[in-house]
Amino acid sequence: MNTNTPTFRSSYEHPLPLPVLSDDRRTAAKDFPEWKGEPTIKPALQALEITFRLASHVLSDPRPYSVDAREWNRRLASLCSRQMEILSLLFEQTENVTGIPVAGLGSPSRASEASLLPRLAARDMTSCLARQVLLQIESLLHMCRFTLGLGEPNRAGKPSLEYDLIVQPTSLHAFEGRCRHRNRDADVLFTIRHVSESWSCACNGLLGEIVAKIQRGDWEQAASDCWILERIWKLLSEIEDLHMMMDPDDFLQLKTQLASPSSSSASNSPFRFVSAALLEVASMSKNLKNNVPKILAVEVDPKGGPRVQEAAMRLFHSSGRGEGDNPGRLHLLQALQAVEAAVKRFFFGHRQLLTTLVGSLEATGNRGLIGVEASDIVFTEPPYFPSLDAAKTFLGDLWQRELNKNCSLEQ
């Protein structure tokens, strides 16, 4: 299935036209030409900053029925932790941090002046979460040669990242002021969307790196990036689940206000959160399958023969799979299938989330319509890597026959 078609995209973006971050901030990402990791790391840092804005919105909400402060604190702390874990993995790769703007080694560590995190630490309602996040930064990024510069403890005396220069928190948060519906629920809904959108942009950059590394035969590094990509898809699921924390009546009222009344099909269109940027990343994740022949060092049989499948079986079952670059190839193939599982898990979870939020009738868009839901298509698609799937099927059958043979001999 082609997720780039207008029909597929519209089925996910109608009838909730949420504002998207400006294209120049999301896709240009060329403020630092010498920093190769900018297209991936910059939007990831921006997602973390937007999470701080989300914390400010929800934890300052005075409505007791609307905010479960204890659970919000837990979820936000977990979300920040997972984001910093992924950032730490990205920072571990030398090429990602080469050219990254960092204060000189002789410069003292300093806190960001524009980030919301230091301000959260100064407020009673958010100080507990902010202190926890600051400690997480020092703990999770202890292997990095620099600190983020958000006011976290810096006992190692490391130089600070030029956080304000990279993330540009002031302009990042200014985008929120351009949203039409200004109320607390809209702020929360838009902010959750922007965290997800920023990570979609980071995925886009990471996928480009994965393909480049595969093309030059850097199997281990490509596998490492694929495992990070899998983590990001799991993170996106956790971000989506934040919608469950919104008050149901206020959420449905806001959804009605945001729905386009001018569209004749508005009442019959399935309700979606997934953005066009995320759909593009899903399509790119699926297209990683095109690299399997390169990894296995074979060409696709133009007559449709099992050439790629046989090469996969030889690698999986070979006694020499621990020699040479075979381990890297094996790890990469496993990581690619892990990404597939994470993508399908995301869309399956998305459907269940929508069913809980708006009811099964509207979530599936079946008000008098006959058709298959788009998210159903994603997670019920055939395997992205059919040759690997078939190779494992036959390999499992081989071991089962071997077991049956041994049992027969024993009898």
From TrEMBL:
GO terms for biological process: defense response; L-tryptophan catabolic process to kynurenine. Pfam families: Hs1pro-1_C, Hs1pro-1_N. Transmembrane segments: none annotated. Gene3D superfamilies: 1.20.58.480. Coiled coil: none annotated. One of its GO terms (molecular function) is heme binding. Residues 142-400 form the Hs1pro-1 C-terminal domain. PANTHER family: NEMATODE RESISTANCE PROTEIN-LIKE HSPRO1. This is Nematode resistance protein-like HSPRO1. It comes from Iris pallida.
